[in-house]
């Protein structure tokens, strides 16, 4: 049967579709290849040393050995499956010895505070020199970066001076090398202008420091209502990403600044609050397919024992040791629950604020993926074996969408 439309009549619609497809491919390139860290550890810039991550690993191992020396102890503390406890405990110990931190952020914002200009200048230079030493010694984690102060009317000059001093010193001290996975984190964003201004500064610094174009990516902090929804009522994140002109690599959710900005009382400011889930889901949907990676926030109840033996003083009593363990285990369980909550929501990265959170971060991540490994492998094998046709394993139906999730 002869079709009604001629090739000429189809040309314009096909051209329109081709242009739309090109635009969509540029805006939504898909999942970014390469590794994503499972966490970011924050530390004040004044405390950073070339071997900071090794020190954190040693402290994390000490906490694990003191409060969960056996697999059964760890399983009891964070409700691990007994069948997986031995494997996970061994994996965590190995991870803490081999690569205790995956991503570290030198913090000149909340973890550092407001200081005299001369003092912050000195810390910017010293932190950069320490990073250069770590780069030469091979002690830096796979990902690292610096969080500057907000580009507010009061703090922008100070923020950009710190950024300039840090990057200039790092370039001069690193003998031509540059840390892999380096980012500049921008906090408390109120609109795309701040992102665009930072991108302008980074353009100039790359030229002056003879860095490759794009060597200084931007990481957005999503921690204000204005960074979730714009003044026009639209999702703000795509506009923030566009303002970065290709520099934005990730968006990190700031739990406590965000909940505080909504007047949520301190007792209810936590990662699992419904307002946080809503904001993160808006962020997730608006950036889906963009290649921008998303990170959840932190648990601020830390696994710190209430009793410590004074140097040269009496040892802790049995009751004090027991209270210490209960306190650490309670904080571990909360942290593990928060990490799992993030993973269920497909936020595969979060923040850690204390070395004793590293064991529960890794234990929960390992458990989350190992628990469903056998079933997922069977389902994926059947799905692939039938050339991506819809399949049924037991009472679970899989099609192309769930097949992607199994990967």
Automatic annotation (TrEMBL):
GO annotation (BP), single: oxaloacetate metabolic process
Top-level taxon in the UniProt lineage: Bacteria
Annotated GO MF terms: kinase activity; magnesium ion binding
Cofactor(s) named in the record: Mg(2+)
Keywords from the UniProt entry: Kinase, Magnesium, Metal-binding, Pyruvate, Transferase
UniProt feature coiled coil, ranges: none
InterPro entries in the cross-refs: DUF6986, Pyrv/PenolPyrv_kinase-like_dom, Pyrv_kinase-like_dom_sf
Name used for this protein in its record: Phosphoenolpyruvate kinase
């Amino acid at each position: 049967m002869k079709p009604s439309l001629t090739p000429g009549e189809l040309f314009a619609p096909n051209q329109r579709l081709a242009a739309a497809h090109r635009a969509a491919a540029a805006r939504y390139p898909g999942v970014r290849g390469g590794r994503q860290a499972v966490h970011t550890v924050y530390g004040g810039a004044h405390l950073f040393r070339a071997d900071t991550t090794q020190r954190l690993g040693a402290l994390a191992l000490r906490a694990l050995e003191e409060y969960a020396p056996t697999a059964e102890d760890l399983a009891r503390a964070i409700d691990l499956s007994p069948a997986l406890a031995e494997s996970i405990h061994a994996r965590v110990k190995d991870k803490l010895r081999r690569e205790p931190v995956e991503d570290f952020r030198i913090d000149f914002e909340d973890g550092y505070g407001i200081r005299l200009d001369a003092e912050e200048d000195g810390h910017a230079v010293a932190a950069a020199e320490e990073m250069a030493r770590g780069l030469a010694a091979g002690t830096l984690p796979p990902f690292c970066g610096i969080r500057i102060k907000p580009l507010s009317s009061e703090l922008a000059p100070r923020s950009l001076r710190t950024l300039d001093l840090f990057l200039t010193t790092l370039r001069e001290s690193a003998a031509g090398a540059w840390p892999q996975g380096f980012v500049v984190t921008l906090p408390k964003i109120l609109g795309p202008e701040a992102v665009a201004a930072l991108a302008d500064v980074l353009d100039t610094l790359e030229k002056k420091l003879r860095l490759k174009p794009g060597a200084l990516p931007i990481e957005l902090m999503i921690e204000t209502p204005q960074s979730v929804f714009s003044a026009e009522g639209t999702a703000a994140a795509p506009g923030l990403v566009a303002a970065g002109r290709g520099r934005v690599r990730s968006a990190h959710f700031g739990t406590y600044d965000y909940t505080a900005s909504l007047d949520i009382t301190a007792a209810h400011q936590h990662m699992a609050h419904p307002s946080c889930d809503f904001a993160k889901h808006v962020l997730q949907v608006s950036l889906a397919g963009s290649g921008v990676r998303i990170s959840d926030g932190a648990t601020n109840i830390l696994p710190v024992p209430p009793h410590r033996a004074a140097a040269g003083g009496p040892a802790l009593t049995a009751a004090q040791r027991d209270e210490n363990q209960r306190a650490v285990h309670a904080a571990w369980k909360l942290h593990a629950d928060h990490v799992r909550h993030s993973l269920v929501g497909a936020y595969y990265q979060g923040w850690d604020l204390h070395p004793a959170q590293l064991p529960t971060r890794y234990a929960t991540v390992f458990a989350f993926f190992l628990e469903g490994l056998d079933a997922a492998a069977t389902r994926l094998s059947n799905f692939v074996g039938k050339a991506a046709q819809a399949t049924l394993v037991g009472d679970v139906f899989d099609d192309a969408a769930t097949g992607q999730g199994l990967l």
